[in-house]
Structure formats: C-alpha cells, structure tokens
Design goal:
Number of helices of chain A: 8
CATH topology of the largest domain in chain B: Rossmann fold
Number of strands of chain A: 0
Shape of chain B: elongated
CATH class of the largest domain in chain B: Alpha Beta
Helix content of chain A: over 70%
Order of helices and strands of chain B: HHHEHEHEHHHEHEHEHH
Shape of chain A: extended
Distance between the termini of chain A: 13 Å
Strand content of chain A: under 5%
CATH architecture of the largest domain in chain B: 3-Layer(aba) Sandwich
Strand content of chain B: 5-15%
Oligomer: heterodimer
Number of helices of chain B: 12
Largest interface: A-B, 60 and 74 residues
Radius of gyration of chain B: 22 Å
Chain lengths: ~230, ~280
C-alpha cells in the first residue's frame, strides 16, 4: 500500500537503483541476445570479472578479522588462547610454506625465490598437505558413516506407511550399492537404479524447481523493494 | 548390553561398523565388481571421442572427500591418457590444483608431453573466470600452475578457448561445481558434461542425467572400482579393496535396521504406548 511506503534516503535510493538496474540487465541479457552496437553478453561477462576484486577483498577482510580475534585471545590470555596460538601458527605457517613451494607458489619458476629453498620447503608442504590436511579432513568426513549407521538403526522403523516406504527404498538402495549383494542377485542394482532415476529424480526436481521459483520471487521482490521499505 | 542401552549409547554400532570396515581393508580382501550403466556411459562416451579432442577436467572437491572422489579422478585421468586426447586441468575449489598434481603423480602418462598434450591451469577463482575462459583462456590464465606463460603452450595455441572442449568432467562435492558448468558451458556452448559425485551428492545430480544435460554420473568410490574394471587397471586407485569394506558396512547397516525394527515391535507388544 502506497501510504505505508517509507521514504528512502539518498543512499538507499542510489543502492536501489543499482540493484534494479543490474538485476534487470542480467535478466535481459539472459533472455535476449544483443550483439549490435554493443555485445551485451560480453559486457555482462566483464561485469562478472569485477566480482574477483570484491571477493578477494572479502577474503582479505576475513583473514584480518580472524587474526585480530585470535591475537586478542592470546594477548588477553582468554581460556582458549592456546588454541588461538595453534590456529595462527597453522594459518600463517601453511600460507608461507604454500607460497614458497606448492601448486599455489608465487614464484614457481624460482626467479626470485632460491631453488634450494624451494627444494627444502617442498617436502614440508607435501607432508603438511597430503599427510596431515588430507588425513584430518577425510577422517572428519568419514565420521558421517558412523552417524548414518546409528541414525539408520534409530530412525528407519515400520511406523507409518510413509516411514515404511522410506525404509524399503533406503534398504533397497543400500543393498544395490553394495557389490556383494549384486553378486547374490543382480536385480538389486536394477532396483537401485530405478529408485534413483525415477522416484528420487521426481523428488529432486520438485525441490530444484521450488528453490528456483523461490530465488526468482526473492530476486523480483528485491529489485522492486517489495514489501515496501524492507 | 540391553536394547534400551544400545538406543541410548551407539558405541556398539560404532565398534561393529569400525570392525567391518577395517578388517576387509587390512586383509586386502577383494570382490568382483559388476559395472553399472551410469559408469559405463562415461567410459563409452570417452571411448567414442575423436582423436585430438579437448577434454577439460575440473577438480571441484576438497581434501575431505578425497577417499571418494580421488580414486574416480585417478581412473578417469588414466583412461584419458590412454587415448589420443588433449587434456586441460582446472579447479573451482582451492584444493583442486594440489589434488590435480597428486592425480598426475598417480597415473601412467603414456608418453604424453606437458604443454603439448596436457596442462594444469589451476584455480578458477570465480564465475567471471569460468565464463571468460570459454572465449579466451590466455586472458584469464596468463600462466599455468608451473609458471609457464600459457601463450607458449602448444595445447593452448591449438585450443585458445574452452568452448572448443568436447567434454567437461567435474569431480564435484557441491558448490561451486556442476551447476556453473551447466549454466555457462553446457547451456551456452553445448559442451557435454560428466560429473563425478560422492554417494551423498549423487541423488541431486541424477535429474540432470535424465534430462540429458549431463552425459554420465560417476557415483562414489564404487564408480572408481567399476572404472578400474573397464580400463583393466585393477589396483590403480585402491577402490577395489574398498568394495569389500563398503559391502560389509552396508550389510551391517541393513542388519541393524532389521534388528531395530524387531526390537521396536517387541517393545511395542510389551507396552503398546511405545511410539519409537
């Protein structure tokens, strides 16, 4: 309702004009191909390039903020200050080692950084990355299997029609995914593929289309600043 | 341990699961692995690519999903190296370039030359680069991960734009991953896309397979084991021994579900007000 519309100040108005213009521009370029006199697709791609600078700045702010918080933890000897020391050592230690010798090295052809230093640092980086980081992260992710096993035991019960269907489908997919059951009866893999490709796909499509429509609705609302003033 | 204590204390389940996973791995037990249609579709597509086609591999996963996706990356890369194809390696995740190097160390490069037959371009920091490289790789990747100017690489001279690719394979855990390639590479340039997925992410990718937007989906470490069978390189990625552990753990979970339901019905008969 027009009477409820709060008045925008100048900064808000400028921001709203930018949001509307870019939103409209990208929607227009997506649906309409304009190559003369200006290739709008190329302009759109170039505008995306400016995201690089913004995202890099955001990343830098994140590192600065993390450092400030944890340096303060150490300075004030807060209860978790020892963990902060570990975090800062890992953050900057790994960054320095990676910059000297890794696929992210700042001087991979050893023009400035001496070859001997790179050679000395390389095994350290390989150990830290492949032996420490990969192992730790893979271990954490693998814990999921234990939670799934426990959850399956607790949750998959013949209580209602829906939960029974869920249980049957889940068990059949699990059996189809295990090679040993395929050797016992090849039909398990056929049933697994059918469940994954039809009922699963139908459900996933519903979620995808629902999410896409929600994003569209949110984008239009944001472009037109509706409900007014929010 | 009583049934009620199992419900409140899952340590017995954890212990059993730990045993059925570690024992087969430590004993190096192996099992024949039937090949599924989804994996065979990827193999067949690569086999049918004309000589000198450009294939781009995107490492869009982090270290946490290495056990599932790394074996896939190894076997698919090995298959590509056995064919007369040109290969570019990129990554939408920061871990990608390091994992690319690990894969290249693990495969037999079959006399392929770096720079002429394959090259590692490294990290794609954002959508702008992903879009931009479709028309000009050199502008967005002035150097490769080894510090060589990309304009000096014969493979880039032959294929200066990624839109010339005949296949894009993404090993994806989540976002950024498949969707960017579908939107900006497949929709705009009709570049066929294959996705290598973790078991947990695969159901979300299957609608794109049915719609024809992706030509194949590799599902979990099992796809790597199946692919080892297809390219006849058993033991290359370590996926085959993992299949026994996967089978035994899945069987255990099914048995736990059956046991849980029996216990539920027994409790329900003893006291009808039991709801869970």
């Amino acid at each position: 309702m027009g009477s409820d519309k709060p008045k925008m100040n100048r900064e808000e108005l400028i921001l709203q004009v930018i949001i509307f213009s870019l939103g409209f521009f990208y929607a227009f370029v997506y649906y309409v191909r304009v190559t003369e006199p200006v290739d709008l697709q190329a302009v759109s791609d170039q505008l995306f390039a400016y995201l690089t600078a913004m995202l890099t700045a955001a990343f830098a702010i994140g590192v600065i903020n993390l450092t400030r918080v944890h340096v303060n933890n150490v300075k004030r000897k807060r209860p978790v200050w020892k963990f902060s020391v570990v975090l800062l050592a890992c953050l900057y230690g790994m960054a320095v080692v990676s910059m000297i010798s890794s696929p992210f090295a700042i001087d991979p052809q050893a023009i400035v950084i001496p070859q001997t230093l790179m050679g000395a640092v390389d095994p350290i980086w390989e150990f830290l990355y492949y032996k420490v980081l990969v192992s730790i992260n893979a271990t954490i992710f693998s814990l999921l299997a234990f939670f799934i096993a426990s959850a399956a035991y607790r949750a998959l019960k013949v209580r209602t029609l829906e939960s029974t269907l869920f249980l049957i489908a889940g068990v059949l997919v699990i059996l189809g995914q295990a090679p040993i059951t395929n050797l016992v009866w090849p039909g398990f893999i056929t049933i697994r593929d059918w469940i994954m490709q039809y009922p699963n796909t139908a459900g996933q499509r519903g979620i995808l289309i629902g999410a896409a429509l929600a994003i569209l609705a949110f984008s239009v609302r944001r472009m037109f600043r509706y409900p007014w003033g929010r | 341990m009583s049934k009620s204590s199992i419900r409140s204390d899952p340590r017995l389940i954890y212990l059993l699961l730990g045993l059925v996973i570690t024992v087969p791995i430590l004993t190096h037990a192996v099992l024949p692995v039937p090949v599924s249609d989804t994996t065979r579709a990827v193999y067949d597509f690569i086999q049918k690519l004309p000589a000198n086609s450009l294939v781009i591999l995107s490492f869009d996963y982090s270290t946490s999903t290495v056990p599932e996706l790394h074996p896939q990356a190894i076997v698919v890369t090995q298959h590509l190296f056995t064919r007369p194809l040109k290969i570019l390696f990129v990554a939408q995740w920061t871990d990608g370039p390091a994992l690319t190097d690990a894969v290249l160390d693990a495969v037999d490069k079959e006399n392929k030359t770096y720079g002429a037959d394959y090259a590692t371009l490294g990290y794609i920091p954002n959508t702008a680069t992903l879009i931009g490289m479709t028309t000009d790789i050199r502008q967005y990747f002035p150097v490769d991960t080894r510090g060589n100017p990309t304009q000096s690489l014969p493979i880039i001279e032959e294929f200066p734009a990624a839109k010339a690719a005949s296949l894009l394979i993404t090993f994806a855990t989540g976002e950024p991953g498949l969707s960017a390639y579908l939107q900006y590479w497949n929709a705009r340039f009709n570049i066929p896309v294959v996705v290598g997925a973790t078991a947990i992410a695969a159901p979300g990718y299957l609608p794109y397979l049915n719609s024809g937007q992706v030509v194949g989906v590799l599902i979990s470490i099992r796809a790597a084991a199946e692919y080892e069978v297809l390219i006849n390189r058993l033991g290359l990625s370590g996926a085959i021994p993992a299949m026994v552990a996967q089978s035994s753990s899945h069987i255990l979970i099914v048995l736990m579900v059956i046991f849980g339901n029996v216990a539920y019905f027994v409790r329900k008969q003893r006291s009808p007000e039991v709801s869970q």
